[in-house]
Protein 1
Amino acid sequence: MTSEFVITFAQEAIKTTILVSLPVLLIGLGVGLVISIFQAVTQIHEMTLTFVPKILAILLGLLVFGSWMLELLTRFTINTIEQIPLYIR
């Protein structure tokens, strides 16, 4: 196992992690921004108002992007398992 291999594997793992988490995080960020603008405009500063819409939006995002996320993780896992003989060298 060379240092080049370890760096490449770590880069691929980080890239996969970012790609899988990005849709859900962006949805949460967008909904949070919209709610905070709504709260600033209406001067309603209820802390619990942000949680329910964010949770619902994130669940909807998981329903929409879940198959793509699972496919990406499956491809990474299969690729990693198939290369185990190369790791041993």
Protein 2
Amino acid sequence: MLSEELYRKIQRFHFTTKRLASDLFAGQYESAFKGRGMEFAEVREYQLGDDIRTIDWNVSARFGRPFVKVFHEERELTVILILDISGSHLFGTREKFKRELLAEVAGMLAFLAIRTNDKVGAILFSSRVEKYIPPKKGASHVWRLIKEIFTYEPVDLSTNIDGVLTYLNRVARRHTILFLISDCMDTGFEKSLRLTAKKHDLTVIRVTDPAEEALPEVGLVLLRDPETGERVLINSRSRRFRERWRAYTREQEEYLMELFSRAGVDHVELTTDGPVVEPLARLFEMRRRRL
């Protein structure tokens, strides 16, 4: 049973993401993610500017004037949001937790999908597939999806991206639009990422917090790994430790960028203190130009 406070929070979030999707991304999502082909719609009289390759010569000969075939894009797509709800997303030092940022992005993408009559579903995962929400249409379905993101308590707190991608390739047999939304704090998913990108249209949206890249200088700090529960005491003012921390984050960043590039995967970087709309708009525009 939802508390009244949480219910109101989800309602506000639901309204905000719906408004952003309606006002700011009109047409951009649709032009960035195209259908798989064209289907015949009708025959009509030729108009100035029509492509002569679409002339229906049989109908034109029958009526003694030119007619053209009209085709429409097979628009209905299936979108699946692959959402990382592991323990590392219960972290945030700025405006929001990473899981709240994840929910915001997922909500906007879900509304964009149903606005263009696409079906949208979700997979919530940690070290295992926690919950699969099959793709459907409609605003009530998006409401359920957002509610699950906010309220679902994972059974496990660690991360296994390879496992969820392997699972997805079993349940999604047809070509699907995929968004993997995660901080990508994992390794060993190179092969499954390449296979998924080859079979489907995969975009990675990576969510991070500024403190993960540059530790604030606050002296002695007791850190707890949210996925393993391990605790460690560090001196955040130690120059040597800070250099090692920066070297590790750079190494992880380079590893992921090379991995995405080799797999041919589009990716977006979002932070808990940064904008959401602009990076997604740039992604859609890049895809539109490429198409």
